[in-house]
Specification:
- The model has no long low-confidence stretch (mean pLDDT 86).
- The N and C termini lie far apart (37 Å).
- By secondary structure, this protein is of the alpha+beta class.
- A hairpin with a 3-residue loop joins strand 3 and strand 4.
- Helix content is 13%, strand content 29%.
């Protein structure tokens, strides 16, 4: 399920809601890119075309994984 607030994702038999507030990189992505998600082993999921990966544990316990964005040193502020 994809809606204006985020996406619902089924992983290993469990359903998780991923809010765009938590993973903003998915908000403006093409639907085909959001649907192109794969399991990496038993511990992570990945959207390769978007450069996003999440530990499954962070879906189970998001309070343990505060979102911290790191600026790429190649980015320039103007």
């Amino acid at each position: 399920m994809i809606n204006a607030q985020g996406i619902m994702l089924s992983v290993l038999g469990n359903d998780y809601f991923i809010s765009y507030n938590r993973v903003p990189w998915l908000k403006d992505a093409r639907i085909s890119d959001v649907l192109n998600v794969r399991l990496c082993g038993q511990s992570a999921i990945e959207w390769e075309s978007l450069g996003v990966d999440l530990e499954i544990e962070s879906l189970k316990h998001p309070e343990r994984y505060p979102l911290i964005m790191k600026r790429n040193p190649l980015d320039t502020i103007r």
